[in-house]
Amino acid sequence: MSTPRIGLALGSGGARGLAHIPLLEVFDEMGIRPSIVAGASIGAIIGAPYCAGIPAKDLRAHLLGEIKDRARAMAKLVDARAASIFDVFKGEGNLFTLDGEKLLDIYWPEDIPETFEELEIPLLVAATDFFRREGVTFEAGSLRPAVAASLAIPGVVKPVQHEGRTLIDGGIVNPLPFDLLFDKADHVIAIDVAGGPTEDVERMPGGFELGIGTIQIMQEAIVCAKLASRRPEAVIKPDVAEFFVLEFLSGKEALAAGDACKEDMKRQIESIIRSG
């Protein structure tokens, strides 16, 4: 029997999405590959190097190497600012906004292809057209600007102008893009790392946390509505609610949350293979 075509959706969720990596390791450990991957935001960031042929265990090692030295990691974030202090003085930028393509240059492993066509596994990248107020899916052409657009969290990473559009975070309209895969695969697995702020009713959130938390609540509502309409065969939801979306230096803990779901992922894949 031939292995059925499995489509894999990697959802948005900022640092929570580092839990995707252990679940990609399950495919490698079983000696199979998804036939196609769809990613939004952090899902696209992780999905692209995986689709380029980089084993998930190498992605884990690369991540842990990047966050091992916290001071060095913070310095790299400073280097990824979208505007210099001179730009700010001229009124031409925000000192605290990051450039998505610079982030990819810093944190992606080396030798990532320049185009979708060079990937070993087809990849769909979800982004949002700001002015047209609609979702956009990229699957051909330049890879880097498409992924940079997908990770452009409002107020954190600057929008990307690409192919005549002004683009922001794909998670704004499609935080778990499994719907992009139904007509491209026999079976679909989705990894959901969305979710709103954790309960702490006695504390007043600050302005930045309030803005990010509002986006999280919106994304969770979108995912719930999509799942109520049509569910993929399997939805894996790592326990990552405790992590703030920008808490990338807590990568070990997010990876551990993914590790805890590996057996469930293996069972789901085995069930799909048996069903054909």
Task: Write up what this structure looks like.
With 276 residues, this protein is of the alpha/beta class. The chain contains ten helices and eight strands. Strands 1, 2, 3, 4, 5, 6, 7 and 8 form an eight-stranded mixed β-sheet that branches. The radius of gyration is 18 Å and the shape is globular. About 4% of the residues have low confidence.
**Low-pLDDT stretches:** 83-92
Number of strands: 8
Q: How does the major sheet shape up?
A: 8 strands, mixed
What share of the residues does DSSP label as strand, in percent?
A: 5-15%
Coarse morphology:
globular
Structural class: alpha/beta
Mean pLDDT: 87
Distance, first to last CA = 8 Å
Question: Main traits of this protein?
Answer:
276 residues, alpha/beta, eight-stranded mixed beta sheet, 10 helices
Please provide a brief summary of the model.
This protein is of the alpha/beta class.
Helix-strand layout with pairing:
Elements (H helix, E strand, L loop, with lengths): L5 E5 L9 H11 L5 E5 L1 H10 L4 H12 L2 H10 L5 H5 L10 H8 L15 E7 L4 E5 L4 H8 L9 E3 L2 E4 L18 E5 L15 H23 L4 E3 L14 H9 L2 H14 L1
Helix pairs in contact: 1-3, 1-9, 1-10, 2-7, 6-7
